[in-house]
Specification:
138 residues; Alpha-Beta Plaits; 7 helices; 40% helix
Length: 138
């Protein structure tokens, strides 16, 4: 079983889509190994997205991710990283496949409802960034 990290972003939480997104996650066969709702501080968001610090969208991304609560999760399933990325859909919801989370719930490329790790190394970092061993099962 592989683990991956996921976030339901502030836009989806604020619009009341968290329950529907969680239902899609369970319907797709993921086991939720950890889950918590939290409000990111500016420092926490900057640390999490440090890899994008030099990109022009960094400050807007940090502002977005701190504007309201998020739901952070560790998802578990065979091939979890690819399976979660497939379920999320393309970053730009206009290019996302019908039935994906971003096609259904994202507003635009910047307010795209969910986040998911793109590789095992990223998943390991992101998981440790948000959760300690006492907060996970499985």
């Amino acid at each position: 079983m592989q683990k991956t990290f996921a976030i339901i972003k502030p836009d989806a939480v604020a619009q009341g889509h968290a329950g529907a997104i969680l239902a899609e996650i369970e319907k797709a066969g993921f086991k939720v190994a950890a889950l918590k709702m939290m409000q990111l501080s500016k420092d926490q968001a900057e640390g999490f997205y440090a890899v994008h610090r030099e990109r022009p969208f960094f400050n807007d991304l940090v502002a977005f991710m701190t504007e309201g609560p998020v739901i952070a999760m560790i998802l578990q399933k065979d091939g979890a990283i690819k399976a979660w990325r497939d379920l999320m859909g393309a970053t730009n919801p206009e290019q996302a496949v019908e039935g994906t989370i971003r096609k259904r719930f994202a507003t635009n490329i910047e307010r795209n409802a969910v986040h998911g790790s793109d590789a095992e190394e990223t998943a390991a970092f992101e998981t440790r960034y948000f959760f300690n061993a006492m907060e996970t099962v499985g």
